[in-house]
Design brief:
- It is built from 13 helices and 15 strands.
- It is an alpha/beta fold.
- It has 2 domains: about 210 residues, Rossmann fold; about 160 residues, 3-Layer(aba) Sandwich (Rossmann fold), CATH 3.40.50.2000.
- Strand 13, helix 10 and strand 14 form a beta-alpha-beta unit.
- Helix 1 packs across helix 13, helix 3 packs parallel to helix 4 and helix 7 crosses helix 12.
Length: about 400
C-alpha cells in the first residue's frame, strides 16, 4: 500500500532532505512532478539548457515553484542519427561538467539523474564520494536502444553495474533494464505523465475544419515520428472514397517535405498547423475525433496521455513505449506495415476505434506518492523527518 498522501509533506519547522534532479532540458510535462517534489524536499533542478527543436517550450523555469532551478555550464552538440543510411532524427548531446560544481555546492542527500549519460556518471561519482543514494530515471526500451553504438552499450553496462536505484518510465523500460542486468527489486516503475488538470474532458470546441471526422497528429516533423507512413495511409483511404480531415500540428526539419508529399499524394482536407503553446493543446485535442500516433520509435509518447485524458480514441504505434500499458490490441498497429496501417485507420475513421480507458493512466498525485516513498526509503533515518501534516500533493 502506498503511504498516505498526508504523510509525505515535511514540516516547515524541520530541516528537509535535499534532493537534486539532473535533466538534459526542462520539459513542461515534468512541472507538476517537480512542484510536488518541492513540497517534500529542498529541491534543486539542474538542466543543460533549452534545445532549439522545442520552439513551443518557454518560461518553464517560472512554472516550477518552491524549487531552485539552475542551468549548469556546458555544451549542446546537435547530432543526426542515421538508420539504413538516411537521416532518422536530430538529437542533442549534452556535455555539462557544470553539474559537478552545483552538486558539491548544494550537497544533496539524494540525487536523481535522467537517462544514462555523462550527467548520470557525474551523479554516481558524487553519490560514491559522499555516500549518497543516486536514482537513475530511465525510459529507453529494447526497440529505442536497438541501434546504439558500442560506446553507448559500454556506458549502459557501466551504469547498470554501478547504480543501485532505478526509476523506469513503464513496463517496456523496466524489461530493458532487466535485460541489462538491473535487479527488478531495485526498479521503481512509474509512467510518464502530463498535467492532467489541463486535460479534463469537456464539451467539444467549435471545429474550423469542414470535413469530419478529424484525424489528428501531434508531434515533430522528423522521420522518427512516422508522418510519411501516415500520409500514405490517409491517401490510400481517400482513394477508396473515404472523406476525413487530417490535421498535423508541429514543426521540424521534415515539415516542408511532408507538405510536398501531401501534394504529391493529392491528399484532400489536410492541414499543417504550427506548434502550439502547451496550455493551448487541450483545445486542439477537443477539436479532433481521434489521434493517430504512428511513431517508429518513442520511449513513451506523452501525446497519447493527453488524448486519453481528453477521452479521444487513439490509434497508437506498437513502437511507442506507452502502447501496451495504455491501449488494447484494437488500438495498436505497426506503422511499418502499410496494409495494417490502412486497415486500422479505416476502422478508426469509421468510428469503431474504442474509447481509451483513463484508469490505465496514473495520476500525478499517484506518481508523487510512489516517487517520494521510494526516495525516502533510500535515505538514512537521520536525514529527514516527516510528519502527518496535510500535503500540497493532494489534487
Amino acid at each position: 500500500m502506498p503511504a498516505p498522501i498526508s504523510s509525505l509533506h515535511s514540516s516547515q519547522d524541520e530541516e528537509r532532505a535535499k534532493l537534486a534532479i539532473l535533466v538534459n532540458t526542462l520539459s513542461p510535462a515534468r512541472v507538476p512532478l517537480f512542484n510536488g517534489l518541492a513540497s517534500c524536499f529542498d529541491l534543486l533542478v539542474l538542466h543543460g539548457g533549452n534545445e532549439s527543436n522545442r520552439d513551443s517550450w518557454h518560461d518553464i523555469e517560472r512554472s516550477i515553484s518552491g524549487a531552485s532551478v539552475k542551468k549548469a555550464w556546458g555544451w549542446q552538440i546537435r547530432l543526426t542519427r542515421r538508420l539504413n543510411g538516411r537521416s532518422f532524427d536530430h538529437r542533442y548531446l549534452h556535455i555539462t561538467p557544470g553539474y559537478i560544481w552545483h552538486l558539491v555546492l548544494f550537497r544533496p542527500d539524494v540525487v536523481v539523474a535522467n537517462e544514462m549519460g555523462l550527467r548520470t556518471l557525474i551523479a554516481l561519482a558524487y553519490g560514491t564520494l559522499f555516500r549518497k543514494p543516486v536514482w537513475v530515471w530511465w525510459g529507453g526500451t529494447a526497440h529505442t536502444e536497438r541501434g546504439i553504438g558500442t560506446a553507448k552499450q559500454l556506458m549502459r553496462r557501466l551504469i547498470v553495474n554501478w547504480a543501485n536505484h532505478w526509476i523506469s518510465y513503464g513496463q517496456s523500460s523496466t524489461e530493458y533494464l532487466e535485460r541489462l542486468g538491473a535487479r527488478r527489486t531495485n526498479i521503481v516503475e512509474i509512467q510518464n505523465s502530463v498535467d492532467e488538470r489541463r486535460f479534463a474532458p469537456r464539451e467539444k470546441t467549435a471545429e474550423p475544419f469542414l470535413q469530419r471526422p478529424v484525424v489528428l497528429h501531434v508531434g515533430q516533423f522528423t522521420p522518427r515520428k512516422g508522418i510519411g507512413p501516415l500520409l500514405r495511409a490517409a491517401a490510400a483511404l481517400q482513394s477508396e472514397g473515404h472523406q476525413f480531415s487530417l490535421v498535423l500540428v508541429g514543426s521540424g526539419p521534415e515539415r516542408f517535405g511532408a507538405q510536398g508529399l501531401a501534394r504529391e499524394l493529392r491528399l484532400q482536407h489536410v492541414y499543417f498547423e504550427a506548434p502550439r503553446d502547451p496550455a493551448d493543446m487541450p483545445s486542439v485535442y477537443r477539436s479532433a475525433d481521434m489521434l493517430v500516433f504512428p511513431t517508429l520509435e518513442d520511449v513513451w509518447g506523452l501525446v497519447a496521455n493527453e488524448a486519453v485524458l481528453i477521452g479521444l480514441p487513439v490509434l497508437c504505434s506498437k513502437y511507442a513505449g506507452c502502447a501496451r500499458e495504455l491501449f488494447t490490441d484494437e488500438s495498436i498497429f505497426d506503422p511499418g506495415n502499410p496494409e495494417e496501417f490502412v486497415a486500422k485507420l479505416r476502422v478508426a475513421i469509421s468510428g469503431k476505434l474504442p474509447r481509451p480507458d483513463a484508469s490505465r493512466l496514473r495520476s500525478t498525485p499517484q506518481l508523487l506518492r510512489i516517487l517520494v516513498t521510494a526516495l525516502r526509503s533510500s535515505l538514512p533515518a537521520r536525514a529527514v523527518a516527516f510528519t502527518d501534516r496535510q500535503s500540497d500533493i493532494a489534487p
